[in-house]
Design a protein that fits this description.
about 80 residues, globular
Amino acid sequence: MGPYPYGGSTDHGNTVDDQTHIMTWNTLRRLVGSAHFLYVADAKLCTRENRAHIARGEGALPDRFTQDAARGRLVS
């Protein structure tokens, strides 16, 4: 694994994954000790709530991510 933190969870099969990103991001932020890491996820990360949480936690979203979201890929 090396110096790369990894976080995730095993949830019930009916768990909606757009609701798991905040918990996972918070866990990684605690492990790293800051918001300076790359969080890779699927399109369900692109909800307003998830993006706002990351921004409030001093995390950054790549420009390409926000551009794609602005083109209609945003999940509300």
